[in-house]
Design brief:
- This is Phytochrome O.
- InterPro entries: GAF, GAF-like_dom_sf, PAS, Phyto_chromo_attachment, Phyto_chromo_BS, Phytochrome, Phytochrome_cen-reg, Phytochrome_PHY_sf.
- Keywords: Chromophore, Photoreceptor protein, Receptor, Sensory transduction, Transcription, Transcription regulation.
- It comes from Pinus sylvestris.
- α4 packs parallel to α7.
- A hairpin with a 5-residue loop joins β7 and β8.
- The protein has seven helices and twelve strands.
- The strands form four sheets. It has a five-stranded antiparallel sheet, sandwiched between helices. A three-stranded antiparallel sheet has the order 1-2-3. It has a two-stranded antiparallel ribbon with strand order 9-10.
- Among the domains are: about 130 residues, Beta-Lactamase, CATH 3.30.450; about 140 residues, PHY domain (Beta-Lactamase, 2-Layer Sandwich), CATH 3.30.450.
- It is an alpha+beta fold and about 375 residues long.
- The longest helix is centred in the C-terminal third of the chain and has 57 residues.
Amino acid sequence: EPYLGLHYPATDIPQASRFLFMKNRVRMICDCCAPPMKVIQDKRLRRPLSLCGSTLRAPHGCHAQYMANMGSIASLVMSVTINENGDDSEGNGLQQQQKGRKLWGLVVCHHTSPRVIPFPLRYACEFLMQVFGIQLNKEVELAAQLREKHILRVQTVLCDMLLRDAPVGIVSQTPNIMDLVKCDGAALLYGKRLWLLGTTPTEAQILDISDWLLEHHRDSTGLSTDSLAEAGYPGAASLGDAVCGIAAVRITSKDFLFWFRSHTAKEVKWGGAKHDPNDKDDGRRMHPRSSFKAFLEVVKRRSLPWEDVEMDAIHSLQLILRDSFQDIDDSDNKTMIHSRLNDLRLQGIDELSAVTNEMVRLIETATVPILAIDSNGLVNGWNTK
């Protein structure tokens, strides 16, 4: 039975098995039907013996049954690992080699009868997977670098636009916020006004989404989801096929930036049902799926997921916008303070002038003579009396 193009649930390879594939790059099972042999441990050993890195370790009973259900008796599995987060790990020790790496995939070879692969051939396979992993890692890093350069270039242009015309410039000029990440539409809600780009909900729907965010996500600075329905938005059905996924960030207390993605109806061909009703669980041990018959699942009402690098770019723009608004607020506050001080200064001058005029009037209208003396004791003025 061909396996090309089939998808399998992630639970088919548990986390414990993924950890073992990181420690043992090539795993051979000669005969899944062979009875396992017990290992007698010396009582003087303080800790139980670990056979994680041994090729003699018997497969778990659940995995052996899994292989039998697939019609496979022997298997050879080779792990493909790449650097995690682009970190170049160097070192001679096994722990240093494993540090900073993650499991990218598996190359699985099946055989319908018992078969033993000699060590030289297994060693050659391990070397081949290492070379493949190095080349794959270069391709992954190159793609990430190209995307980062594109994002940085767009961010630089958007920052220049914000200096000239914040925040409307990033939606009214080219490039705009739609060029920052892959999306079908975008919108800016600022000062109770909306600017729309591409495929978006209606203005009333966007305002409703913003109200929902303010009510149900008031403690968050934003939201990203590939399905508004699963995120709990009650009006998701009214959006139709145009909008399904959304990335929204708050730029002020009530203003938002939105990116929208349409739903992607795609067919996923599964190698066996994810929840086969014929598979029973007695509650005491794990049971593998008994059915591997391919079935077709049509995934709807879900957009492409938002990648980490895309959300980093969105959050960076959010911080830049918040800083620009803070500068505007600070400038407005400074202008207001200077204006108030100037008003107070003018008011003080007017009050001083009024006091002076009143003193002159009182002196001139006094019924007794009044002399004005300077600091040297000389008379320099007097009233009419």
